Amino acid sequence: MSFVSAISLVRQTEGMHENLRQFFSWLKAVIVHPTGQKGLYPRFIRIALFLMAGVILFVLVFVLFVWVGVFGRIPGTEELRNIDHQVATEVYSADSVLLGKYFLQERSTIPSSQISAGLKQALIATEDIRFYQHRGIDARSMLRVLIKGVFLQRESAGGGSTLTQQLAKNLYPRRSYWILSLPINKIREMIIARRLERLYSKDEILVLYLNTIPFGDNVYGIKTAAERFFSVPVNQLTLDQSAVLIGMLKATHRYNPRLFPDRARQRRDVVLQQMEKYD
């Protein structure tokens, strides 16, 4: 090391020492009570840290209990890899004319090739704009909901659940756990969402979601919804029709295009604006 470099290093060290001395002087002024009584603020800080550590420990133990199945079994990898939808049984005549359907839930599944890019874009822009950035859980959205929805009480906070979490809720409906229903179900959905993201590609998750979403009136899946509300196959939906169906997801009865056409149009316009905003 040269003499000049050594002098420079000494000066930097002296400057750092001065900064540290000022910091500890400020810290002492904060901790020591103006009357000179010591220990008041440190005790308060210790209590606050103890309470914070207790809350964190409680949350971790609570999540662990949900994860190991104390509140009900969490589906494993094999079960999630072989998801089985309840679909309607279709009866055709000899000349391939559909005669009728038998079902508990009116649902028909479709492959990704029949889902237009516009329909997928409408879904992502409206329900989960960061779908391709997260891995099942969007911490940024959860923080936004916490600040805007809980602390600021704003209706525009939106939802914190990702499409993958919503898919988990569709596949495994929520259960009642009395006053703990919301936190337990939310944690279950997060765990399932993370497992789904490890097993399926983003496009596969979109297809699974569109094949499971409820549209009210015992209608499940985008294929059945397209036929019920517009009498067309999914791959023939226009952009406006796709926006109407995606808009229904916010409240399937309130935005039903047959029952409330004006509301459905207003909601459709919101979806189209979201698509334009995030295009």
Cα shape: globular
Number of helices: 11
Strand content: under 5%
First-residue to last-residue Cα separation: 56 Å
> Would you list the SSEs in sequence order as H and E?
HHHEEEHHHHHEHHH
Instruction: Output the radius of gyration.
Output: 27 Å
Reported for the largest beta sheet, the result is:
2 strands, antiparallel
Class derived from helix and strand content? mainly alpha
* Biggest β-sheet: strands ordered side by side in the sheet: 1-2
* Residue runs with pLDDT of under 50 for 5 or more positions: 1-13, 98-105
Tally of DSSP β-strands: 4
Percent helix: 55-70%
Q: What does the average pLDDT come to?
A: 79
In short, what is this structure?
The protein is mainly α and 279 residues long. Helices cover 58% and strands 5% of the residues.
Name the descriptors:
two-stranded antiparallel sheet; 11 helices
Describe this structure in words.
This protein is mainly α and 279 residues long. It is 58% helix and 5% strand. The chain contains eleven helices and four strands, in the order H-H-H-E-E-E-H-H-H-H-H-E-H-H-H. It has helices spanning 3-31, 40-68, 77-81, 117-127, 139-151, 163-171, 181-199, 202-212, 222-230, 239-247, 261-277, and strands at residues 89-92, 98-102, 106-107, 219-220. The strands form two sheets. A two-stranded antiparallel ribbon has the order 1-2. Strands 3-4 form a two-stranded parallel ribbon. The longest helix is centred in the N-terminal third of the chain and has 29 residues, at 3-31. The N and C termini lie far apart (56 Å).
